[in-house]
Amino acid sequence: MDYFITAKEEVLREVAASITAKITRYMIDNDIKIDHKNPMSILLDTVNDLSDSLIENSDYTMDELEKVSAKFSFARDYIDEVIRKNERQ
Predict the structure, then answer these.
(1) Which of 20, 8, 25, 11 is nearest to 75 (CA)?
(2) Which end of the chain is more exposed for a tag (fewer CB within 10 A), N or C?
(3) In a domain? residue 27
(4) How confident is the model over 21-64, as pLDDT tens digits?
């Protein structure tokens, strides 16, 4: 097992936890119920599925982890932008 891959997986799990917390806080603050047709619920499900895959699949390559990282970056940027846009109202 490659130490760098294991370390990257751990960092990505922490990133996922942070994103999950932001999305959940936004949903609670805005009284958004979990509805798998709602964009926030879909984003939350996607982040959770990616996070779960990091735990269940220990055969990731560094390239695959970079793709997961990019997806997390998009999710983080998206929820940050949603929060920013809704603070201005």
Answers:
(1) 20
(2) C
(3) no
(4) 999 999 999 999 998 899 999 999 999 999 999 999 878 999 99
Give, as one character, the DSSP assignment of residue 33.
P
Burial environment of residue 82 by CB neighbours within 10 A (0 to 12, 13 to 18, 19 or more): middle
Domain that holds residue 73: 3-15+34-87
DSSP state of 23: H
- Look at residue 80 and tell me if it is in a domain: yes
C-beta contacts of 72-78 below 8 A and 24+ residues apart: 72/12, 72/15, 72/16, 72/19, 72/47, 75/19, 75/23, 75/43, 75/46, 75/47, 76/15, 76/18, 76/19, 76/22, 78/43
Tell me the C-alpha distance between 81 and 87, whole Å: 10
Tokens representing residue 26 in the block: 């936004």
